Structure formats: structure tokens, C-alpha cells
Amino acid sequence: MKAFFGKTKDGTDVNCFTISNNKGITASFIEYGAAITKLIVPDRNGIPVDITLGYDTLAEYENNNIYLGAIVGRNANRIAGGTYTLEGIEYSLPINDNDNNLHSGPKGFDKIVWTGEEIDESTVRFTYFSPDMEGGFPGNMNAAVTYQIGDDNLKMTFEATTDKTTIANFVNHAYYNLDGHDSGSIERNMVQLFASNINPVIDNQAIPTGKNMDVTGTAFDFRIPKLLGRDIDNEDEQLGFVGGYDHNFVMDGTPDELRPFAIFSSEKTGIIMKVSSNQQGMQFYSGNFITKHPGKGGTEYDFRYGFAFEPQYAPNSINDPNFASPILKPDEKYLSETVLTFSAV
């Protein structure tokens, strides 16, 4: 279902698309940032629960500085110093996070109006043409994001082609709380991450060292399910650098194959969300930099009220030969898939 959502500051119309199935899963998306605004799933009693943070108005999304619900790209996460080299040419990007470029700067894919198309009642597709050198990235890029609801899941497919060698590494940056978006702290959510290693960061700039760190015996070991908040305030140098979790988890299994990444659950609602992806790793972020501000439905969001998981190439991978490269060439197609599967007990 398509409906008018609002006008941007420059007068561009923005529509909202809602898709659903007959099992009680409903999701809404807007053309601004191709953002998820609602994701409603039934709890253990069949009562619908909205598990994503969001806003009621377009103006709030335009003023949003935490990428809430939006697609981030062309490059998700950080590029150290805001510079990188491709085919012998050095490129400069805007600095918007300490000394680095984060999520492609102040006007990435999250701050543009995509073109939405309702494919059927369970599928919506957003497309965007990103011109050569937009945001400091070479090549004319055709980008697309498809959201599709199945019997028990929401599938996100990210695609891109280019006419020059460039970077392609984008994700959806929704924030989740399986207790309900208006339930406060996420620290009572249960988390299981299928990762034996993380990429530790150098300091509070949150740029990885380029090495793997075994999670055994650390606060980063989520291989056995535990409360998100159990170890989050431990006196761990890595946690201290970024005020909690904001690290790339190196997911077990074979990259480029769809495989289990995570299982999140809520004792309060009984909702279980299993995450699968074909990506290299997953940035797990515990909402450490959310500050108090109004959210949808008259609620208020604050510190650690939502967590984000971002299947992607490692931060600063364009500059670090230790990581798989996010480079996309003209004869290639970027394809990243993430599937959220829901149940309740």
C-alpha cells in the first residue's frame, strides 16, 4: 500500500509503502533514505509489537543524525582520515566522525529521496541513481534495495552496478528493541552472535587494528546467548573506547554464502529474530550515542534504547589489505542479502 508521507525541506514529495503477510508481519518504508519506519511482528500471545525505532514525521527523519532506519552508503561504517586510493587516484571524503568519514558523510544514501515501487503486497523496491563523484565516490552507480516479506521473514536485498571502479558497501541501519520500540533500554534483550572473533579498534576513533581478536573469555563472546547488558559496562578497554559495543564481528562460516549471523530474543514479548546474511562480518552497535529525543507515537528514545546490526565489509576495509575489499568494478554486480526470520515462544 502506497501513501503520501510528506514533503522534504526542498519540496520533494515522499511516499510511504506498507507491505504485509497473513501471519501478522507488517513493515513500512519511506522513500527518504529508503528507511524502515515500522516493523510489526506478533508476540507470544499474537499481539502486534513494533520492534524498530522510528519517527512520525518526515522533518524528524531529515533532522535525524543517527541514521535511524535508513540505508547508509555508498560505504557503510568508517573510512580512516576520510581518504582512500582507487587505481592510483586518491579520493577525499567529508569528515563527520572524529577524524574519519562515517557512513559516507553528511549526505549519503540516508539523506536522499529514493524512488519506491510496490512490486506486490509483500514486496517494495527502492532505486537510486548516484552520479559520478557524489559524496567523493567515483562512477555512476545504479543502486537498489528490495524489501520482501515471506511467511515468517523480512528479506533485504542490496544491489548495485557502476561504470567506474568504486566502493559498494551499504546496509540498512534500523535500530531494534524486541521488547517493543517504546520499552526503554535494550539491555534485557538476549543476544547470540555466531562470531569467534571481532576486529578490535585502535582507540576511540573506532578504526580497526586490522587484526582478529578471539572472543573467548571476553565481553564480546556471544556464542552462547546472554543478556545484551550483562557485560556491556565491564572494565574492558575495547568497550571503553566506544562506550559499549560498536565493533565488527567476524562471522563464522563462508563469506558470500547466506548463513546464520545472530539470534535476538525478548523474554518480555517472546519474540525471536534470527538474522542471516551473505556478508563478511557484522557491525554490532548498542546505541551508545543515542541521546534523549522524541520518537514515534509520543515515546522518547535515549541511551541504549535500540541496537543495530550491520552486515557489511569491515570498517576501513578500503584502506586495509587485511580485510576483504569493498571495491566494485564495472563488470561486476554488488549483491548483499540479509534475512530476518521471526517466531515467538
Short description:
The protein is 3% helix and 41% strand. It contains two helices and 29 strands.
Q: What is the count of DSSP helices, taking H or I runs of 4+ residues?
A: 2
Rg, Å, rounded: 19 Å
- Widest sheet, order of strands: 11-12-13-14-29-23-22-17-20
N- to C-terminal distance? 30 Å
Please report the total strand number as a whole number.
29
Low-confidence stretches: none
Characteristics of this structure?
345 residues; mainly beta; 9-stranded antiparallel β-sheet; 2 helices; 3% helix; globular
Your description of this structure?
- The chain is mostly beta strands and 345 residues long.
- It has helices spanning 58-63, 237-242; strands at 2-7, 13-20, 26-30, 35-42, 48-50, 71-72, 78-79, 83-86, 89-92, 101-102, 115-120, 123-130, 141-149, 153-162, 166-167, 171-172, 190-193, 195-199, 213-214, 226-227, 246-251, 259-265, 271-277, 281-285, 293-294, 300-301, 308-312, 327-328, 334-344.
- The strands form eight sheets. The protein has a nine-stranded antiparallel sheet with strand order 11-12-13-14-29-23-22-17-20, with no helix packed on it.
- The longest helix is centred in the N-terminal third of the chain and has 6 residues, at 58-63.
- The protein is globular and about 60 Å long.
- It starts with a strand and ends with a strand.
